[in-house]
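ok new one. same drill as before - structure tokens go in, u give me an amino acid for every spot. 230 of them this time. try not to just spam alanines like last time pls lmao
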């Protein structure tokens, strides 16, 4: 178990990044307007770093920070409905030290897992532009390059799935994306790269409607742990 976002894992350039003007404006506007429940809190309102165990064998790859979750707390999946679903699952799976995650300093520790996202800033309406994902891709590359023990990737939703494939292509892997469509519960053997397991994103839209249940997520997480040797 290690401290979230270990010192030195990210250069200062991440927190000061304004490479996508639309995203920089939006994350800061959300922080100015705030949600009533958090009106007395100071929002992070910067690109959000990944966090977890730097010796991770499993990477959890999400879409982007939540407007009043990670964009407020400064830690991936922390303080919103998606995290309220994800962290209990990680706890049940023996990968998290506690079943909830409310703040950067709440004592949450991950074992064998690193959590990050395809996009580091909250996009309007949770709809990133293709060029924004491409601009942010070097930060995903940064995470993967700093995780030498990585053995598997759990893609939380279709955008995370596509982003991992695009990163592999940028790395020189000869793959045809159309041969690897997103499919919940499927493990993709990517020949020479860490395999990717797909799961529906733990968004409230999916969990509240029953499209993704705890049992469904637990089953896929079990497979991802096996692929990573956890």
């Amino acid at each position: 178990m290690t401290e979230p976002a270990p010192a030195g894992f990210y250069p200062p350039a991440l927190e000061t990044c304004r490479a996508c003007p639309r995203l920089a404006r939006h994350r800061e506007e959300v922080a100015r307007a705030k949600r009533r429940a958090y009106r007395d809190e100071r929002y992070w309102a910067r690109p959000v770093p990944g966090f977890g165990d730097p010796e991770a064998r499993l990477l959890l790859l999400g879409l982007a920070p939540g407007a009043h979750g990670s964009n407020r707390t400064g830690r991936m999946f922390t303080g919103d409905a998606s995290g309220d679903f994800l962290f209990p699952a990680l706890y049940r799976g023996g990968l998290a030290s506690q079943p909830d995650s409310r703040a950067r300093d709440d004592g949450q520790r991950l074992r064998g897992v690193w959590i990050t996202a395809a996009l580091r800033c909250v996009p309007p309406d949770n709809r990133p532009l293709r060029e924004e994902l491409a601009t942010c891709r070097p930060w995903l590359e940064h995470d993967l390059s700093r995780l030498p023990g990585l053995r598997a990737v759990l893609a939380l939703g279709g955008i995370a799935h596509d982003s991992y494939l695009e990163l592999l292509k940028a790395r020189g892997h000869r793959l045809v994306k159309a041969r690897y469509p997103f499919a919940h519960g499927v493990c993709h053997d990517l020949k020479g790269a860490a395999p990717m397991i797909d799961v529906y994103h733990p968004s409230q839209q999916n969990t509240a409607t029953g499209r993704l249940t705890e049992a469904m997520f637990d089953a896929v997480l079990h497979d991802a742990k096996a692929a990573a040797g956890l």
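The mean pLDDT is 95. and btw The helical segments are 21-33, 70-73, 81-92, 130-145, 158-170, 204-207, 214-228.
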